[in-house]
Amino acid sequence: VLLITFALKTRLNSFQQAFAVLYENPSITMSLFAIQDLKVRPDIVHEYPGPGVTPGATAIVIDNGSYHCRAGWASQEEPLLCFKNVLAKPRKDRNKKDAEAAAVPTVQIGNDIVNIEAVRFQLRTQFDRNVVTHLHVQEQILDYLFERMGVDADGSVPHPVLLTECVTNPNYSRMLMAELMFECYGIPGLSYGVDSLFSYGLNSGVGIPGLSYGVDSLFSYGLNS
């Protein structure tokens, strides 16, 4: 009880000191920022080949994240595509006529899902704890990706691909992804890497997946906020 009381008094003193600084310095103001929801717009089909893109030579960079997927050309600074890495299969409404039902896409991917909350229970992902395990979902998302980049993926994709993966990705999952890329899309080359290192231009480092937690402790007792 004494330790807890001491800890509470310590934190109370810290708050009192902070308020005293604000009171003595009225020029210090607190800024409030409004967080706006990102408006989802369907991705357009980009022109191929784009600026700085050499057919058959320029690599395609795919950041295959478990939340967002970003894709673009290695010769450009910004990615062409950025969308939520999920797909949805809306159920057929029996009350609608055949013509109306045919107008609804059987599969919606990425930014084509305008209202994601309405179809949340129908969402599918290729990941299981950040590891790609559902290859049929991954294939559909890659079809969407190459189509929006303007590359005809029906025949083959004549560009090498740089693909990110999670830290300590199992070799079996990597083998399945390589099999999908080479056999379904006929790419000439494939390279893997960890995006947290590539973002700093490094190929060696320490990667910490997931979240890290910090707990305050006083005399071997944890302090709850």
From TrEMBL:
InterPro entries: Actin, ATPase_NBD. Gene3D superfamilies: 3.30.420.40. This is Actin-related protein 5. It comes from Culex pipiens (House mosquito).
